[in-house]
Amino acid sequence: MNLLTSTWVLFLKYWPVFLEGLIATLKTAAIVVVFGTLVGAILAMLKQIRFKPLSLFLTFMINFLRGTPLLLQLFFFYLAFPSIVGFDLSTEFCIILALIVNSSAYVAEIFRAGIQAVDSGQYEAASSLGMSEFHRMTRIILPQAIKNILPALGNEFVMMIKETSLSSTFFMSDIMTSFQVVKSNSFLVLEPLIIIAIIYFTLTTVFSSLVKLLETRLSVSD
Amino acid sequence: MTNENTPILEVQNLKKNFGSLQVLKGIDEIIHKGEVLTIIGPSGSGKSTFLRCLNLLETPTSGDIIFEGITLNKDTKVNLQKHRQKIGMVFQHFNVFPHLSALQNITITPVVEKKYSKQEAEGIAMDLLKQVGLDDKADQYPRKLSGGQKQRLAIVRALAMKPDVMLFDEPTSALDPEMVKDVLNVIRDLANSGMTIVIVTHEMGFAKEISSRVLFMDDGLIAESGSPETIFNHPTHPRTQEFLAQVL
Question: CB-CB: which of B99, B109, B143 is closest to A129?
Answer without folding.
Answer: B109
